[in-house]
Structures are given as C-alpha cells and as structure tokens.
Design brief:
about 210 residues; alpha+beta; four-stranded mixed β-sheet; three-stranded antiparallel β-sheet; about 45% helix
Length: about 210
C-alpha cells in the first residue's frame, strides 16, 4: 500500500484528496490512513495535508511547498523569502508568508509556519511562481515585494539615507543587491502599497543611492 502511494505521489507532500484517491479501493480507507500515520510511513502536517515519513521520503520535505498548502491563499515573503533569495545572511527557520485572510500560525512536525494579513488590494502585485523542481512550483514574493512587505511593517524612516542604512547595516543587505532590484516592479508595488517606507525604497533604487 505504501509502495503504491509512493509510486503515484509526484512529491513528498500531498493532500487528503490525493491519498483517499489511492486508498478508496480498500475497505475503510480512513482507517488505512490512520494506520499509515501511526506506523510513521505518513506524517500528518495538519488536517488534510500529509507527507511521507523519513523512511519513505524522497529527500527532505519541501517546506516552501507546504507553506502554500497549509494556509491559503498565501505566498512566501518577509524574512524567509529574503533568506531564500540570499539577500540576508542569516538562515531563517520560521517560514513566513503573507495572506489576504487573517493572521495564522501553525506548529507542525516539520517546522513552524506564520501567515500575516495583507490587504486584498495589495496582495497580487509582485507575486511570482518559482520552480523548485519539475514537480513543485511555489508562490513566493519577488525580491521587491518581500522587502516591501518587511519594511512596510516597520516604523517610518525619516528619509532615504536612514532607510538605506537600516537595510545595509541592520538587515545586512548588500548595497549592490538593492541597486539590482527591478525598478519598474518596485514602483508598481509602491504605487499600490502607498506606504512611506516602500516609497522611499523605490526612490533609493531608482536614484541609485
């Protein structure tokens, strides 16, 4: 049973509908699922979301893919996205995402996930789809949106110089990384966010601080 499931599953991560489509030929498929979980062959991430246990997994569970599945609509952003892109030097264990629903946090067997509310009008701009591998595509903030989401939640900066100092000294983002941000995309985000910090960031990048 587990071997068939492993053969048919495109990734380590799958949902309730998928596993039930495999187990439906058995009597009491839900009992079968319970036994798979108790044996450790399958891990319950949260209600309706599952992954193979270590013995059967094809490599590590993809937490980025799980972040999109656990609570949605959502996209990965903030510190985790910045670390994903290599913009900040620290590794980030908490998978941070934005959602147009209410704030939510989940503690799971494969790590912790946090979701922060973003107004629906601001939500779509700057999201990209990133290919992890041939079977996994995730929704994640572009570099411009991830940084905008982060600084929009921080206290207002007095001007471009203080924001630039914060980004390069406190967040330790390389100045060259900032200057390579997409000016057009950042301007589009700033126009929709209407947030002082995001507008300052757009000006810094546009003028080449």
């Amino acid at each position: 049973m587990i071997e068939e499931l492993k053969r048919l599953a495109p990734t380590n991560e799958f949902d309730y509908l998928f596993i039930m489509s495999i187990l439906k030929k058995y009597k009491k498929p839900r009992d079968k699922l319970t036994r798979l979980i108790r044996s450790g062959a399958v891990i319950r991430i949260k209600k309706g979301i599952y992954a193979f246990g270590p013995r059967y997994a094809r490599g590590p569970v993809c937490r980025e893919a799980l972040a999109n599945l656990i609570y949605g609509p959502s996209y990965i952003s903030l510190e985790y996205a910045l670390a994903f892109y290599g913009m900040i030097p620290e590794s980030v264990e908490l998978v941070t995402s934005m959602t147009n629903k209410r704030n939510k946090a989940f503690s799971t067997p494969v790590g912790n996930f946090a979701y922060s509310y973003l107004h629906p009008a601001k939500y779509p701009v700057g999201i990209i789809q990133c290919e992890i591998d041939s079977s996994r595509h995730i929704f994640i903030a572009s570099k411009e949106k991830a940084l905008s989401d982060l600084i929009a939640r921080q206290g207002s900066f007095s001007g471009p110089e203080t924001l630039f100092t914060h980004l390069t000294e406190n967040l330790r983002i390389e100045g060259s990384e900032l200057m390579n941000l997409n000016k057009k995309r950042l301007r589009e985000i700033a126009d929709i966010y209407r947030n002082r910090n995001v507008t300052l960031l757009s000006k810094i990048v546009r003028k080449g601080q």
